Amino acid sequence: MNANDADKRNTEPIYNIGMVSRITDIPENTLRTWERRHGFPRASRTEGGHRLYSEFEVARLQWVKTRLDEGIQISQAVRLLRHAEDEGHFSEPAASAPVPSLYDARDTPALERFRGRMLESLFNHDAEGADQVLANIMALYPLESVLFNVISPIFNATGQAWAEGRISIATDHFVTQRLRTYLVSWVQASPPPFPVSPVILAGAPGEWHEGSLLMLAVLLRRLRWPVIYIGQSVPLTDLAEFVDEVNPSVLVLVAITEEPALALQELPHWLPDVQTSTAPIICYGGRIFSLKPDLVDDSPGIYLGDNLQEGVEKLNAILRELHPDYSGRVS
After folding, report:
1. Fold that domain 102-188 belongs to in CATH
2. Over the chain (331 residues), what is each successive 10-residue block's mean pLDDT?
3. What is the assigned CATH class of domain 3-96?
4. pTM of the entire structure?
5. CB 263: neighbour CB atoms within 10 A?
6. For residues 40 and 36, what is the distance between their CA atoms, to the nearest angstrom?
7. Considering the domain 199-322, what is its CATH architecture?
């Protein structure tokens, strides 16, 4: 990706006002008031009249927010920002650097520390503490990094802690439900989807783990692909009827454990077109397929790879090929 591509992505309006409010800790009503009184921040509008903000505009907001925290009035802070821009002295803070490609969602020591603090809060049933740590993370890192390096490892650590008897099943449920709340809110706060056939996301029959499925929903919506999330343990009979009614571009099925993965081998019976080029394209993934590669050979459809990052990249490529007039944010 060249510099022009990065600059274009950085100014693309993608965040709705709710997400900007969460990132900057500035109330939505305040953002609207500032826009009316000071012409700041700058927002694009959807066809329905909803505000959308770019990465660069979020950076400007965070710069102004820092000045307010230093005791400067909003009108003066906006004048200072414009003067700094006119003089070429404004640079985006690290907290709002352009969201990197999904190919560059690397962990850092700082993220490790944040992750440890958040996991400790969750294991201690401190929802407010976990929320505060997450708010700090979101102010410093793009959502992709948060998903790959915070949310996903916490899901894994929680499951391992329960398996080793270090936490109770009640604590396991508390943590996973809290993480689920975050993921659902990010899906709801995503930018408007492209007007194309949706992607259906479903858990294989008997599969009750949905963390990776929800994270995939967030990432696809981040890329502006429409998603229909139908969740855990969907019987293949019901799934076939749903696919006929919805006519999706792609059907994605996730299996984390072996029995649900084996159940997917019956998919051609219920969706006979799975073996042909007829839509929808069938894709599948989940941890069990990397642990037992033989299951890949026996499962119908396209294997999405051994991890979430590989899966979303492959899905994005499939969708871009299906819908060449539209593109996701990965370059």
Report:
1. 1.10.1240
2. 45 82 87 94 86 88 83 86 76 40 58 91 94 83 85 92 94 95 89 91 92 93 92 90 91 92 88 64 90 88 88 90 69 34
3. mainly alpha
4. 0.67
5. 18
6. 8
7. 3-Layer(aba) Sandwich (3.40)
For residue 226, the one-letter residue type is P
